[in-house]
């Protein structure tokens, strides 16, 4: 996508990543976090020990971080090892321009190369851009829970999306 690129995150990116997520924690029901996590949380994602765990960023031509996507544990029990949960957040200022369509496939490709069998994503509803992004990136909606989150004084539904990665790259 002109003007933007994706690359693996480095330690220098963590404060920008934390700031993007903190804004979402405080203003959006997209995440069920109620308090922004500290930098150690992001350092753990950067240093993920599992081969299927990745943290990618979308950057401007000046290498400023405008978004990130990561894969992480779906559930801790070891038979889930080849399944990873994914997440993606962009800065408010760059949404709706196709950066999600650039960054998320890059993450899925990286996951597939590292042997991940399937990706799972939880989408708090409503979130039309996230649902569209997941479908556009080959995910299928596999279920929906009613009222599993309580944030900003209301119950929030959550949809599960799944993408098999065996046919990637
Ligand atoms: C969800 C998010 C990552 C999508 O990235 P994006 O760069 O804004 O989306 P893109 O421009 O790449 O568009 C992706 C798809 O969503 C559609 N879309 C984008 N914005 C939309 C909107 N406001 N309403 C409906 N559809 C929208 C696009 O048309 C595209 O679908 P298509 O390819 O079928 O035409 C981004 O908006 C974001 O960071 N949102 C806040 C955090 C969040 O909700 N993260 C996901 C948690 S599950």
Automatic annotation (TrEMBL):
InterPro entries: Acyl_CoA_acyltransferase, GNAT_dom. It comes from the Bacteria. Keywords: Acyltransferase, Transferase. It holds the Pfam family Acetyltransf_4. PROSITE patterns: GNAT. Residues 4-163 form the N-acetyltransferase domain. This is GNAT family N-acetyltransferase. It comes from Nocardioides lentus.
């Amino acid at each position: 996508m002109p003007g933007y690129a994706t690359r693996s995150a480095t330690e220098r990116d963590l404060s920008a990543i934390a700031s993007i997520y903190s804004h979402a924690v405080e203003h959006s029901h997209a995440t069920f976090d109620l308090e922004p996590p500290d930098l150690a949380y992001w350092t753990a994602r950067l240093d993920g020990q599992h081969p299927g765990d990745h943290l990618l960023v979308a950057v401007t031509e000046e290498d400023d971080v405008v978004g990130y996507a990561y894969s992480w544990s779906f559930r801790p029990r070891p038979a889930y090892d080849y399944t990873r949960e994914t997440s993606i957040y962009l800065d408010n200022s760059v949404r709706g321009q196709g950066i999600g369509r650039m960054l998320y496939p890059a993450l899925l490709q990286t996951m597939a190369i590292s042997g991940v069998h399937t990706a799972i994503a939880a989408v708090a509803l409503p979130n039309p851009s996230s649902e569209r992004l997941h479908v556009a990136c080959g995910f299928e909606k596999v279920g929906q829970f009613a009222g599993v989150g309580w944030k900003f004084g209301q119950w929030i539904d959550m949809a599960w999306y799944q993408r098999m990665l065996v046919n990637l790259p």
